[in-house]
Amino acid sequence: MKNRKLVKGIAMAAIAAMSMGMMAGCGGGENTQQDAAETYKVGLVQLVQHGSLDQANEGMVAGLAAEGFVVGENLEIDQQNAQGDQSNLQSISQQFLSNDVDVIMAIATPAAQVMAANTEEIPIVGTAITSYTEANLVESNEAPGTNVTGTHDMTPIEEQIDLLLQVVPDAKVIGTIYTSSEANSIVQVAILEEVCAAKGLTVEKRTISTVNDIQQAAQSLVGEADAIWLPTDNNVASAMPQVVGVTDEAGLITVCGATSMVEAGGTLTYGINYYYIGYDAGVMAAQILKGEAEPATMAVQGPKVENMDLIVNMDAVEYMGIELPADLMERATQVSVSAE
Predict the structure, then answer these.
(1) Is residue 26 part of a domain?
(2) Position 104 in a domain
(3) Could you give the angle at which helices 183-198 and 157-167 cross, rounded to 10 degrees?
(4) Which of 164, 174, 196, 189 is nearest to 267 (CA)?
(5) 177 secondary structure, DSSP code
(6) Do 270 and 156 form a contact (C-beta atoms < 8 A)?
(7) Which of 57, 45, 126 is nearest to 85 (CA)?
(8) pTM more than 0.85
(9) Cβ of 333: how many Cβ atoms within 10 Å?
(10) Number of domains in the chain
């Protein structure tokens, strides 16, 4: 990064010197053009389109802007969405390298993994990644030691299970659905099992490969589980209508990993607002662009407690005829998510 910036700095100095010479030769006339501000290039890749990742994307751009990097002024962002396709990620990575971007911003674990596999030189700032260490992106959260850093989205699983038990106090079996190939989901479900074991609960797991498996997985949990907990899994998050189409009808509440999953139809959560972790990642990227930090020594950041939200989908609650504890309702943000 330092070498890349040095080259840019030399080029800009040369341009400035030429400009000064032209101004002197022309007598400093009114039509003399000022030196153009340096424009930075950022490649931003999002794994797939769904509420959580869309929020993270919006937050990243806002974080950059808050630090003075504004699209159309001194910043170009090459926005790409891989639509969940690994081959698309490879093509996008090569495009970013060809365009010599200053920073790559990657939303979701698979996106960051492909970017990191293709460059060890361009700084990569990720978000919506549950475990950077498990994904082999960094040596440790405290000291990444690579060209990758960013913000993680480890959801407060124990607090979410406590919330579930407030609503369904007699629950004994917790059902969950996750993608077997998503490292972030595997990590979360392992934690879920530890949390539930400590509380005397059993976990009934269903794995999927694609969104096409979700409805069948949800249906198979009806009659087997007393309530459903859902991780911040990209396939699950992108297909919440299919999940709740089954669970609401069966009277099974869904406690979700992220607020956007409730906004897409889930029952309730105490969870992450992805805009804020995206925003923090945008600020980190800005610090790298300014030369104030390098990924190798820039600690991975987690969600801030003040940015966790307790939200309830009132349409789902009313549809299932659930009565929530009064103190929970006093603390919760109530949203309406009318299903078609």
Answers:
(1) no
(2) yes
(3) 60
(4) 164
(5) E
(6) yes
(7) 45
(8) no
(9) 10
(10) 2
